[in-house]
């Protein structure tokens, strides 16, 4: 746009918005532009333009359909090198999955094979829809995530660590780059516990009407549909609305609750109602210590063995850094080793005993194959019964999965799409019900194992599905002898590290004492009422605190002051000082550069010795400490009005205001 056109359009705009008398008396439009000024005229936004931004085009529809299947972007470039890495990583994770999936199915009140069904469908479907090469969907423990963070943050690998993977990473595990990963460890143990509570509640209210399997499938199907809807509508940003402090309190409460439900199994104590409030469960355990059985020897020994192996491999990782990857992989397999060891002990004890004569509780018969596959037996009435528990389930599923995907994407330098991850998770939950699965989500621990094993693409989960398929058809006779106390010990070991450490609580206190109070209230409600009520209470309190902060937000008027930067001259610099702007001079070999900065003029917000001058007469600079919205509009406007009124005088319509361009 040339200068004449710009001036003409500016005059036309003034005439459109004012009367002729006002435009002549109040505005002095320049006849020419100053030198160096680039003319730009911005049109007013219209509702039509906003509506047109949502118009569907053929290309936008094609792009959307392609984004639903991210695998199409890397399958075309798949090669033998990637296949080898994916096969090794997938098989390794498959062996880690088996015992943990069975344990968490028992936590939900289901038979062990349902855990295998769930993990199989998560592994078989994720590679089609997922955008992360490191995520594993299933029923897996999270305790390994704490133990493996140091390995995940290792940045000692050479830069030439292999060809680039399909997601933009180098394809190797140790990659120079990010030295810190912020992640959220929620744990599918929590999801399984919530499913178990829903099953218990419905069966108590409607005894004999619905089986545990039907309730779990209905909850998984409904949550899957919700997740698919969120994913298709690209609403992954909603996860940012979930307060972290509420999730932290919920996970800590769930850890106490899970340990309380598994201690009676690990000790062989019977007659304890583990679905009651946690404080009642712990009181019942203390009263029943005299009824411990032989199961206690297996349960306590398994816990001690798991911690011993964990500490041993951690020590070896420190002492032998060159074999760090080997020891970390063996550490991730310690649960599988423990279950195999006690399964062997159980077989030696029971091999000559009658089938109905057990020295301690064992898993027992497990159906081979997909005997529970079929269309879920659901009804509108059953959907209505599980619907009240749906929000808490969906929150936990989304928070963990997206947090895990983001953590690994930052670590390995590629991007993930949260909405697409939610879609992949929803597909696994909804379709998994047709083979017998229930609600599942991502696993930080298993994902760490997958990454350490040299995964290259999401196709590695397909090989994990193969191991699970083999277990369902060929290893069910071995699963018969797994001690229940050993599985309980595995769960206790897994959830012990989920509790919020004291250092984190101290950090909450330093950042915001009110948030620590919300955390305490959330844990207290969970211990004395229920987990579901806990998460709703803490989320409601967090939103209430947010609204109060927004409504009572502060602002400050700014004034200007000169700030000088002192810098020693470089040895290689020439005799003349470099051009660093105005207010520059050199004294005694030092360079002082002054620049205008704006600081708060409110008393107490700046150093008292600093002189802060007001801007030009009639100009006020106001900074909002929080977002400006309808909640705090009245507070800010009252302050602005009173301040401007006190520092200005009234004008008349006859005053001429020159318009400078």
Automatic annotation (TrEMBL):
GO molecular function, one term: secondary active sulfate transmembrane transporter activity
A single cellular component GO annotation: membrane
Pfam families in UniProt: Sulfate_transp
Superkingdom of source: Eukaryota
Domain SLC26A/SulP transporter: 83-521
Presence of the UniProt keyword Transcription regulation in the record: no
Major location (coarse): membrane
InterPro entries: S04_transporter_CS, SLC26A/SulP_dom, SLC26A/SulP_fam
Segments passing through the bilayer: 83-108, 114-132, 218-239, 245-272, 293-313, 325-349, 382-408, 463-496, 516-548
Protein keywords: Membrane, Transmembrane, Transmembrane helix
Topology of the protein relative to the lipid bilayer: Multi-pass membrane protein
Location in the cell: Membrane
Protein name per Swiss-Prot or TrEMBL: SLC26A/SulP transporter domain-containing protein
